[in-house]
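Sharing in case it's useful to others searching the archive later.

Someone asked me privately for the predicted structure of AAA family ATPase, so I'm posting the question and my answer publicly. Question first, with the sequence:
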Amino acid sequence: MSRTRRRQTTLRAPYLRRVWLDRSRVEDWEAYPFCLPVFRDEFDQSFDAAVTIIVGENGSGKSTILEGIAGLAGFASTGGRKGFQEVDGGGIEISGDELSSALRAAWVPKVTDGWFFRAETFFSIARYLDRSAVDAAHAMEGVFGASVQEAPDYLSFSHGEGFLVFFEERCQKQGIYIFDEPESALSPARQMDFLKLLHRMDLSGNCQVIMATHAPLLMAYPNAQLLRLGKYGLEPVTLEQTDHYRVMREFCDDPRGFVEATLGE
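And my answer, the predicted structure tokens:
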């Protein structure tokens, strides 16, 4: 049986234009994640740029929203691409499946190639990819001159280097890319490298990125739609209006005084 080739669109990102909560699909408003303030009123979010960045405090629901969107694209809740098998979540709480079943989406057109990156499950996915690559190399060895040594080995890199190699290899084709705190293992210099990759993805016109981050350096990406998740839901915000930027600015202005004041509280 021949495989059907996925057609690429000539339209530019963003492809996912709008996500909203269908309240008729929610059975229990006291259950998580529907009890979160962001879902208390109407949840209806448009995506107006190829790169959307969501900021907010821990526990506000950023990761849950990303999980829900990933589910709409057909990605596994624990990370990966469409058709990728679930990996061990390492005990992390997954609530995106419940949310995605209650979400509706508007796509122009629907593009479900791409990747859902979760820092918590990166090593489980990397281990799976490494094993798959080695198995494939063994199968091809002696046929087309491939060797096991040529197979990628993400786990041989440091945490941050592994992230970047992974991003460079898998996050530049046409698709939708969802990043949940990609900065978690990246030094400031590596975050700058990630910004450069983000810029290439943006310039290609083929990639839609939806990302949650705590890193002001990533929030500063100039072409992004920056949204803050607070008690009133998602709202447009400037970098300078975020708590993350304010705290870092106060620290940089007077590092010693800032730390002493914090410890004295």
